[in-house]
Design a protein that fits this description.
The chain has one domain. The longest helix has 16 residues. The chain has a three-stranded antiparallel beta sheet with strand order 1-3-2, with helices on both faces. By secondary structure, it is of the alpha+beta class. It contains five helices and three strands; from the N terminus they run ααααβαββ.
Length: 153
């Protein structure tokens, strides 16, 4: 994760929001040691296809109390997208919960950490990358990989 600098959180131009984001990001940084120890035995899997959290013992439970923030560069990109489409509703959820069929045409779906967890997300990625399913999708590299998808029908 990036070193904490005030300019990382100035997108909103709101001192209160910046203070909350800075506090939460610092809390996430304090968890870095436990994340390193958790991933160290699995490091050999990352350069290839990544880690499949569905088959790793206790993988999901490990993240129950962890902050796993998007990188501030991704945060800025997401905010810009929301502004560009004049978003009225924004939802944040983990990919393990799936996505309701009620998404309207033109909605944007952003999925973080695609590269590190490709095996766990492969079914999702295959689905949204197939135009026949009504989506247009591409991977973006904004410090960390992010799958950017638009519902087309």
């Amino acid at each position: 994760m990036s070193k904490i600098k005030p300019e990382l959180f100035t997108t909103l131009a709101d001192p209160q929001a910046e203070a909350v984001l800075t506090r939460l990001y610092k809390a996430a940084l304090r968890q870095t040691g436990s994340l390193i120890w958790h991933f160290l035995p699995k490091a050999h899997k990352l350069p290839g296809k990544g880690i499949d959290w569905r088959t790793e013992k206790n993988e999901e439970a490990f993240f129950d109390d962890k902050y796993i923030p998007v990188h501030p560069a991704q945060d800025t990109f997401m905010y810009m997208q929301a502004r560009a489409v004049n978003a009225r509703h924004i939802f944040e959820f983990g990919t393990s919960y799936g996505i309701a069929p009620r998404l309207k045409k033109g909605c944007i779906i952003l999925v973080d950490d695609v590269k590190g967890y490709t095996p766990s997300m492969q079914d999702y990625l295959d689905y949204v990358r197939n135009p026949a399913n009504g989506y247009l999708s591409a991977t973006q590299n904004l410090e960390k990989t992010l799958e950017y998808t638009i519902k087309t029908c």
